[in-house]
Amino acid sequence: MDPQSYQINWTPMDDEPSPESRAEEMKKLYVDAEEHLPHNMPKPLGKGIDINVFVDADHAGNKITRRSHTGIVIYCNCSPILWFSKRQNTVETSTFSSEIIALKIAVELVEGLRYKLRMFGVPINGPARIFCDNKSVVINTSFPNSPLKKKHCAVAYGKVKSAIAAGVAFVYFERSESNIADLLTKVLPYSKRERLVRSIMD
User: Fold this and answer.
1) Residue by residue, what is the 3-state secondary structure of 29-89?
2) Cβ distance 47 to 167 under 8 Å?
3) CB neighbourhood size of 39 (10 A)
4) 96: Cβ contacts below 8 Å, ≥ 6 apart
5) pLDDT grade, residue 121 (50/70/90)?
6) Which of 37, 3, 58 is nearest to 167 (CA)?
7) In this predicted model, what pLDDT tens digit does every residue of 71-84 receive, in sequence order?
């Protein structure tokens, strides 16, 4: 599985607006959203890179505390450069909540990576592409007026929407069968684990 191919092969869900139209809608709500650029960054040189991110959460995966587990894999072009696998700090009562928390963490990692790359003088090709296997999360982050009442989830929700409005990242739906981040969140059958590991190494 080549992460760069997603910009060509990806097709939206029936109820998912295009990333560009989604960002335009978000800008109407988050009018002051913008990416913070280093004030002393060097002039970017060379070929630009694409940032692709796979994110997943194992809801209530810990049998004792019932905390969920976040898994994130970040690619620069075809190279995986960052793995993140960590138990979440809160107990989430729904899969949606654990996934939105994981997505917020992924956005924060992307923001830090983009800042570092710019300080190295590396050009970046547009927003990062974040692939999530929860349709509800992808669809709900596509519409600026969809609310969340649970405060800490709403903060994560707002963070993701603000990042979309600022052009930092776009969120796409990725089926669980091909979501590489599954490797970092749960125990998988041998056949699926082997297939996902091979997709990283190809």
Assistant:
1) HCCCCCCCCCCCCCCCCCCCECEEEEEEEECCCCCCCCCCEEEEEEEECCEEEEEEEEECC
2) no
3) 5
4) 134, 136, 137, 140
5) very high
6) 37
7) 999 999 989 999 99
Token output for 196:
């996902």
The pLDDT of residue 9 is above 50: no
Reduce the DSSP state of residue 102 to 3 states and report it: helix
**Which residues share a beta bridge with 52?**
75, 129
Q: How far is CA 61 from CA 87, 93, 112, 113, 150, in A?
A: 9, 12, 27, 28, 21
Among the listed residues 139, 142, 137, 86, the one whose alpha carbon sits nearest the alpha carbon of residue 109: 86
- What does the pLDDT average to over 28-42? 89
Mean pLDDT across the stretch 84-107?
93
- Give the torsion sign (CA, 119, 122, 127, 131): negative
pLDDT of residue 16: 57
- What sign for the dihedral angle of Cα 4, 5, 6, 7? positive
CATH domain 49-201 topology: Nucleotidyltransferase; domain 5 (3.30.420)
Domain ranges of the chain: 49-201
